[in-house]
Amino acid sequence: MKYSIIVGQSGGPTAAINASLLGLVKTSLNDPEVEHVYGALNGIDGLLKGQIIDFKDEDLTELEKLKTTPSSALGSVRFKLSDYQTDTSVYEKLCHLFMILNIKMFFYIGGNDSMDTCCKIASYLMKINFPCQVIGIPKTIDNDLVETDHTPGYGSAIKYIATTISEIKADISAYQKGKVTFVEIMGRDAGWLTAGSKLASLNGNGPDLIYLPEGSFSLKMFLEKVENIYAKKGHVLVALSEGLKDQEGRYLLTYRSFNSNDDFGHLQLGGVGEVLAEKVNQVLKLPIRSIELNIPQRCAIHAGSLTDLDEAYECGKWAFLYAKEGYTNQMVIMKRISSFPYQIEYQLVSLEKVANLVKKVPLDYLNKTFDDVTEQYLDYALPLIKGEVKINYENGLPKFVNLKKKIISFNKN
Amino acid sequence: MKYSIIVGQSGGPTAAINASLLGLVKTSLNDPEVEHVYGALNGIDGLLKGQIIDFKDEDLTELEKLKTTPSSALGSVRFKLSDYQTDTSVYEKLCHLFMILNIKMFFYIGGNDSMDTCCKIASYLMKINFPCQVIGIPKTIDNDLVETDHTPGYGSAIKYIATTISEIKADISAYQKGKVTFVEIMGRDAGWLTAGSKLASLNGNGPDLIYLPEGSFSLKMFLEKVENIYAKKGHVLVALSEGLKDQEGRYLLTYRSFNSNDDFGHLQLGGVGEVLAEKVNQVLKLPIRSIELNIPQRCAIHAGSLTDLDEAYECGKWAFLYAKEGYTNQMVIMKRISSFPYQIEYQLVSLEKVANLVKKVPLDYLNKTFDDVTEQYLDYALPLIKGEVKINYENGLPKFVNLKKKIISFNKN
User: Fold this and answer.
1) What positions of B carry a catalytic annotation?
2) What is the pLDDT of residues B42-84, one digit of tens each?
3) Which residues contact B92 (CB under 8 A, 6 or more apart)?
4) CA of B15, closest CA in chain A: separation in Å?
5) Are the Cβ atoms of B167 and A202 closer than 8 angstroms?
6) First-to-last CA distance in chain A?
7) What torsion do the CA atoms of A112, A118, A120, A125 make, to the nearest 10 degrees?
8) pTM for the whole thing?
């Protein structure tokens, strides 16, 4: 008997999330048992509002461009799903929709918050014995999902970061007496992205100092190191995580007067580079520059990793293949078989084991003085940035997918 | 009779300045009359200190990597040369060096400040009838040199800017209710770089509003526009120059409490995006994000323009060829013969006509309300970003030139 499936994207955009979408959509469209492959616009939000498209309405050649289109082609959302113990109304609405559209599989591509949504839906459906499977597909540049070796999106993000760090290093080395340059990199509680800056050292262009939230940060030691390096080289390149904390566990950023919170009540980060730059200028009287890599970190497909996009595609593909085998309430993970040669296997893990948890950078990836990253990290990360992405160029610039996004009409009542 | 030549690089790094160096070095090394091709480290500073290398000591295959290495391979300097009317000591030192090393041609790759240096040296040498020719080779991402159609470095900078704008646009469009996002672009008095953001509109990913220093900026009109666009789209992308001024001619940036000056006494810019973002947040109560593209604009070779690098190479080559014909006190310029098909001729212009002058964006490149850029600009700029650069990748990252930089030994007295 034929059935339909639906997919949504959620959380912060990445360079690879659309590659996962393509992997899932292409594989399922080719399956003779699948009648419709639906996409929910803006994740769970569009699902609840009936903003749903049918991938059969899209042009297949155009769809191929998903692989090299950054951000979330279906649109994203930040949505905290209520517990079904306290309120089942949203869940009932979903079941109703799944019934009307004959949806037997629900796929959600996202990070830890999204896996929480996934997990709640899966639990509810199992509880009421509703015949729809739920599979999560990981994505986050932050690489902070537990259970999986790494996350799709991370490889492209650190390839961009290390490429940019290399170029900045070349730039700041041009002057005999240069500046102390800070490059502030995303990462609230985990320093995965900042660690990636170290890859630039493989070609001789790495930062002089690297600070992750996992390390213990001493302002005194930091200033001493900066002073010494500057005296020797005439310039210093510091890579640091936005979520860097002092030895008392306070975000260095809270030294600023004005701070704000995001939709989830998290402190909005960004600016820690400037905080430290001012300290260096005040105490050491050295010239400074602060660079925030900002959102290009999560969408710079033009410097993306081919390995990352290929893996993201595979995660989408395997999500469907595993669902076909009957699995539900699971997330696709990548298990590393070996680093040299690099080999990955796609497996599953229960969503409960993933949702809301954060994987930090293990301490053996940090050096003893917490101002650098070790060889072990390089062995881990190098395979993830191999290969360059061939993007579609038009007018000398990247050309992204252009989906029709025709909303299907159906009787919602 | 055999002679030697010398070249230096000066001013802010670009993605293309080393391509010009390669064009000059390769062409002159192949000339049977040329005995030594010298390079001065850190421009005029290394010249005066005798920090000079001989390109014959470098590996030719390695030298080829200059074409795809950003920044200044010889090192750069910011040096304001005194007038020879007031102090000839520096000039005498230079003449002495040129005599010892049998240097008959001096080439300097740089922007307006560097062309001032070039011009002073050329004038002095002519005044005392010293047999050494001086040719300037243009470079600056700012595109603000007069007389030339555009400057080497500009094409790569705007290709990077427009690529990044495209990706940011894709990113911020993922949410139904997003932010008002500001992208701050370099440009003190001329908006050439910010204008480049408009190229992203050719593929449907352009900014909603573009503000250049050449336009008249009204905060009231700006806030109205932002409010209207946000109401319609749910997000706004604003590209703006760091040197944006209000209707009274004050840098918007001076609204900040803390400001500092650079080595030339210019106000250090950067932060105008945040100034306007705060206004939008205070007045319109809309969520905001401010992104400063910062120094990757001048060194992001990985998103460089092949046309730009090829032209930069040609400028270096023609500098030598014109010097061979006997010209001095000149700068190489590019004259546009036609845009479609794109065709450039390499010519010369007197250094006096170039030094210290700034070419602003002509008003017919700005729309009437000074918040967008016109089709005429696109016709001008599109040819400059055509073609992608094939850079050397090692370990998944760009690998730059590694010069030996062996300082020559000679009797300076």
Assistant:
1) 142
2) 999 999 999 999 999 999 999 999 999 999 999 999 888 899 9
3) none
4) 9
5) no
6) 24
7) -170
8) 0.96
